[in-house]
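Give me the fold.
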Amino acid sequence: MITDDAIKLHFPSLENRIYLNSAAEGIPPESVISALAQYAEDKLLGMDGRKLHELQWESTQDQASQILGLKKEEVSFCSCSSEAYNLASLALNFQDGDEVIINDLDFPAGATPWLQPTCPAEVKVWYSRDGVLRIEDLVPLLSSKTRLVTTSLVSFFNGFKIDLKSLVETVHKNSDSLIALDVTQALGRIPLDLTDIDLVISSTHKWILASHGGGIVGIPSKRSEEFTTHAGGWFNSENAFDSDRFTKATSKPGAASFSVGMPNYPAIYAINAGLEFVQSFGIQNIDEYCEPIMNYFLEEVSKLNIELLAPYDPDHRAGIIAFRHPEADRIYQALHKENIHIMSHAGRLRIAIHAYNRLSDIERCLKILHEHIT
């Protein structure tokens, strides 16, 4: 259960501070710190340590496949979500006349690969209205030329959670497009149902409380052909050390093709421990624990002279609430002075609530907000 004692035990670094910025950086529990130390111990074994690294890789695949609802062989790892998207672009090999749909609430990693001059596909932007991506606005963008619709499940910008079921139904009804989904701002925080998603991508240093240098890739077997990336490497190669290795290169299929070179094993150790940690509490339990805290913060902050950046109804909300204020920097500094950590950027303040946050944390944050917002 998530209790004050459990929070103190697993997150001693939060003893004297309030951390409400998991959408940028998660705070690792002690088990993740221990996992990184274990990597260092195993690395000291030299080549003998490789066997231990490989066991961590396999365990991390097990953990990730369970949480994503995929088979073990349908999950692999790269260095970050940006690398995963660029490898996906290479796999899809767009041609003139192809179309890609992105949206204006998405993180740059999911949008910029298709905007590069080397990508011949036409990019269409699904624009939000009042902080919401409305399915009816997507329909006219879809056509027989649409090869990919890519979006985050939860927007980093304002925390809006897309209606995934309606998105999938609409895309399939109006096109033959593939669907790529970034779950960085959802994985480890809310339960996931990724039915009929063709490519799943996530960073690892946020809500699953692991480290930098990791990217989770999930590709159902039925889409392995479309999403086999033909990138040079060796870890992703079927014939890396075969006699024909200098006459042809054959990539492993699907998710395995995204693990191009030597794995970042420190990140793998951390991801394994982070996934094990959030699953030990239960992601459904984490969501239910955070829900009343989210509700309280939303109710109280709505009374202030701020501009909420999304409606934040329960069906479209995860762990993030964002709002604007003309004196955002001053408010941020006032909170930081009290050792309350949130995100501030270009007049936008963003609160992210995770399992290590208490109602008392929110009460202290709101007290400072009330004092400095008029």
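The longest helix spans residues 48-68.
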